[in-house]
Specification:
It contains 11 helices and 13 strands. It is of the alpha/beta class. The structure holds nicotinamide-adenine-dinucleotide and uridine-diphosphate-N-acetylglucosamine. Nicotinamide-adenine-dinucleotide binds next to helix 1, helix 5, strand 5 and strand 7. It is an enzyme of class 5 (isomerase).
Length: 346
């Protein structure tokens, strides 16, 4: 019988690379497609260094359906792990059509090709953003979804609905929808990690760039929230724990689970200042910060109820906040400019 592959879309990106490492180490064969709009194939080279395995990778845009079909013709694919998409919240507010076209359009293309090739298993990267402002805490999977205020969040909600409809129409489909909380940190090797283009939008990549000297000072968005220290509280999850959640989801899908949804989080919330302190302690680096007004669209507090994933996937997080900070720092200090060489000073 010919070799079966897991197709990882967006596999050159932050979460994709970490998931590919865990999949390879669990014995799966992987093929990566990525259009490299927010990544470079250097990251796959690093994955190969870590695992000692070759990763067939193709520069393919999900919007190019013929190119996607070619991948399905070339490889015997049993399941798709779908990370590819755009994820910058602010940009999505400015360019909503780009986000709907890429995220929703790309996913519909992918699902159509999967159907054509009778590949009916998908694991999808959704986000806690689908919950909007929480009505209660911790947020479990039954919490209402869809009230998100930005186009990025809505693409995640719409894609969830599309996948649910596809599964309802044909019972041979299985889908695991994973709602990520706030992934941070990097692989222990320090070889792969988050590599934001331009000014990081998210907290921890910004903190790491301050520590490495690329930025002067962190701006803390709001100190007047109804939280213990007034700054926003989130559920930060180590990227390797998150990646291992995907291996657990693979096992679930092999049980022919239909369409299921899981939160991937720790269940614990930390404030912005907790994170700054933890990073300083873990790395010995001073992080200068200034308090500024709230960022538009932000909420005070959100953290997961991760019980369902524990009960049904047999998965829970094991890595501490300290490890998140240490591993992030190892990646950032070994690779101050991410995968790119240092820019010349001329
Ligand atoms: N990082 C987070 O905090 C977070 C939280 C919740 C959900 N997610 C979701 O998880 C997934 C992965 O996120 P990430 O942090 O690794 O982001 P990332 O940008 O590092 O990875 C996404 C990858 O998809 C590729 N891509 C984008 N459009 C594509 C297209 N049309 N065709 C093919 N490839 C395309 C990019 O080049 C990139 O490598 C995304 O769907 C994201 O929305 C991320
Ligand atoms: C509005 C927004 O962008 N939401 C996205 C953001 O959420 P989320 O806001 O949870 O994640 P961030 O990392 O951007 O921010 C975490 C916390 O740090 C604060 N902070 C952040 C950056 C900074 O420079 N200074 C600062 O104080 C924020 O106000 C927040 O309280 O990332 C999530 C995980 O990728 C996405 O699912 C969300 O859709």
């Amino acid at each position: 019988m010919s070799t079966e592959y897991v197709l990882v879309t967006g596999g050159a990106g932050y979460i994709g690379t970490h998931a590919v490492v865990e999949l390879l180490q669990a014995g799966y064969n992987v093929v990566v497609v990525d259009n490299l709009v927010n990544a470079s194939m250097e990251s796959i080279g690093r994955v190969e260094e870590i695992t000692g395995k070759k990763v067939p990778s193709h520069q393919v845009d999900l919007l190019d359906k013929e190119a996607v079909k070619k991948i399905f013709q070339q490889y015997k694919i049993s399941l798709v792990m779908h990370f590819a998409g755009l994820k910058a919240v602010g940009e999505s507010v400015q360019l909503p059509l780009l986000y709907y076209h890429t995220n929703v359009g790309g996913t519909v293309n992918l699902l159509e090709v999967m159907k054509e090739f009778s590949v009916k298993n998908i694991i999808f990267s959704s986000s806690a953003t689908v919950y909007g402002a929480p009505q209660y805490l911790p947020v479990d999977e039954k919490h209402p979804t869809g009230s998100c205020t930005n186009a990025y969040g809505k693409t995640k909600f719409f894609i969830e609905e599309i996948i649910r409809d596809v599964c309802a129409a044909d019972k041979e489909w299985n889908a695991v929808i994973l709602r990520y909380f706030n992934p941070v940190g990097a692989h222990k090797s320090g070889k792969i990690g988050e590599n934001p283009q331009g000014v990081p939008n998210n907290l921890m990549p910004f903190v790491a760039q301050v520590a490495v000297g690329r930025r002067e000072c962190l701006t803390v968005f709001g100190s007047d929230y109804d939280t213990p220290d007034g700054t926003g509280v989130r559920d930060y999850i180590h990227i390797v724990d998150l990646a291992q959640g995907h291996v657990a989801a693979m096992k679930k899908i092999q049980e022919k689970c239909g369409c299921v949804v899981y939160n991937l989080g720790t269940g614990v919330g930390y404030s912005v200042l907790d994170m700054v302190k933890a990073f300083q302690k873990a790395t010995g680096k001073e992080i200068p910060y200034k308090i500024a007004p709230r960022r538009e669209g932000d909420i005070a507090t959100v953290y997961a109820d991760p019980k369902t994933a524990e009960q049904e996937l047999g998965w829970k997080t094991t890595r501490s906040l300290e490890e998140m900070c240490e591993d992030l720092w190892r990646w950032q200090s070994n690779n101050p400019h991410g995968y790119a060489p240092a820019p010349s000073s001329s």
